[in-house]
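hey so u asked for the seq, here:
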Amino acid sequence: MRTARIPNSSPRAMRPACFLLVLAVWITGCSSKPSTSSPSSASGGTAVIRVGHFPNITHSQAVIGKSNGWFEKAMAPDARVDWKMFNAGPSAIEAIFADEIDITYIGPNPAISGYVRSRGEALRIVAGATSGGAALVVRADAGIAKPEDFHGKKVASPQLGNTQDVALRAWLQSKGLKPREKGGDVQVIPIANPDQMTLFIRKQIDAAWAPEPWASRLIREAGGKLFFDERELWANGEFVTAHVIVSTKFLREHRNLVKKWLKAHVELTEWISKNLPQAKQALNEQLKKDTGKAIAQQVLDDSFSRLQITYDPVKASLFTSAKWAFDAGLLGRERPDLSGIYDLSVLNEVLKEKGARPVQ
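ran it, structure tokens below
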């Protein structure tokens, strides 16, 4: 296991630099002449649709679809799928800005950030992917039994401004706690999930707000204890963890391909729900190919017990997450207008044709 160190840099100090870097990438992309041609073409003239995903359980449709060729079959003969793998939301957003991908599976807060930073121009959310699948895990020997026990503790999140990081900061505030950079005594440490495992085992952090399968791995493999499942904080236990976004240019110019993709996405979502054992196996086989390591069956089962695979985007939770991010100072000085971030018209066309209830 690789050595992990607690970063010395202040998240507050890093935020302006990160913002400027992403903004510069977007401006560069916007300065190029827009294309009105078909998607990138492979040899023989077949269109290529470039699709991003993370090697995560919360991106199950992408990982399983990549494993069994579901989307390739659905898009043929109109397009070939070129899969792009990312490990963090901001990297996928930069790829959208730079016109390097057309569609990606991604968490809500990176999508919000990308939409705001591009002034609503870069992307649209077109479907949901996963609801739930995150938890706050504490070290069993950290002496944490109630919210007040987090005073003076070190709590990890996957990345500054990502979905779990925003939820953690909002929860701390709701309990009268503050991170150090806000004058409190809770040290929030944004650090990658694999490094959280290392720090957890070495007792260099006391808790972590993590997505699956990392929450379950912290419990099963690192001596962690479930403090709460994040679903407990949301109405009906539903909140968006991953959804599908499309570049606005691609949606405008290739709506037919987006529709074919979403039809396959809806059908695969339904297949996963009805064939969970086979779906878990396909997902685990692909994760082993992508990361070099399969997930232990108990961890896989625990992870799926805390999430729901869905094409519903769970819109209300996204707006709540955006409020939390703004309150944490992660979305600028003016409350963002997200009224145009969704375009569910294509998804609802697909659902109507299937005789299913449209999403709001």
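The first strand starts at residue 47 and ends at 53. Confidence is low (pLDDT under 50) at residues 1-38.
lmk if thats what u needed
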